[in-house]
Amino acid sequence: MNSDWRWLPLAACNILLLALTSMVNDGLAPWSVSLLLAGPCVVWAALRLRPAGLLLCLVASGLAGEAAWPVPPGFLVTLFALGAALVVAARPWLGRAGRSSQIALAWLLNAFYFAVLTIWAAAPGASAIFWERAVADFCLSQVIVLPVSLWFFGFQESVLRLVKLPVAQELATRP
Questions:
Q1: Cα–Cα nearest to 49, from 154, 167, 155
Q2: Residue 175 and residue 154: Cα distance in Å, rounded?
Q3: 3-state class of 127 per DSSP?
Q4: Residue 105, C-beta contacts closer than 8 angstroms, at least 6 positions apart
Q5: Residue 28 CB burial class (10 angstroms; 0-12, 13-18, ≥19)
Q6: Residues whose CB falls within 8 Å of the CB of residue 47, separated by 6 or more in sequence, listed in order
Q7: pLDDT given at position 3
Q8: Where are the domains of the chain?
Q9: pLDDT over threshold 70, residue 172
Q10: Is residue 56 a contact partner of residue 36, using CB atoms and an 8 Å limit?
Q11: For residues 36 and 38, what is the distance between their CA atoms, to the nearest angstrom?
């Protein structure tokens, strides 16, 4: 059996990012703002892992996120799977992905995740205050996700090197 064990440290990195985001949100609570930094969790794995490893990484990461966020069971796993499907579908057009295209993908996925979670959380008669806060949280999250993505992708590669697993330099061209 030819197993790709890179999913395990990548899932651990994703769980760490989600935990750090939760701790930052706890500190930001007095100012009534919060961050969503879920976009970077999917990009590197979706670009380089085979389908089985990608699925394991998404399930582990999604379940960890669901433990921290007030969403129904399977919601974040499904959201991560949708984002990964979009990235996997874009593989042929990306060619050789540099760091800038990975960051752009993380930025776009973060916006997608934020939109879906906000629409899900909005009550039918959501107040103007809810939408004002959503816009402020979205803007802050989208600004912060850029430097965090740059750090996070380097961190993932460093962890893979640390545990002596291959860091593929080329994109996987087949889903």
A1: 167
A2: 23
A3: coil
A4: 39, 43, 47, 87, 90
A5: middle
A6: 87, 91, 94, 97, 102, 105, 171, 172
A7: 67
A8: 7-162
A9: no
A10: no
A11: 6
Longest dimension (CA), the chain: 55
pTM here? 0.88
pLDDT band per the 50, 70, 90 thresholds, residue 18: very high
**How many Å apart are CA 41 and CA 105, to the nearest integer?**
11
**pLDDT per residue as tens digits for the range 88-116:** 888 777 755 678 888 999 999 999 999 99
Q: Pinpoint the alpha helices (H) of the chain.
A: 7-28, 40-48, 51-68, 75-94, 99-121, 128-162
Long-range CB pairs of 71-75 (<8 Å, 24+ gap) are: 71/117, 71/120, 75/120
Give pLDDT tens digits for 26-35. 999 999 899 9
- Alpha carbon 22 to chain centroid distance? 14
pLDDT for res 171: 47
Please tell me which residue, 2 or 69, carries the higher pLDDT value.
69
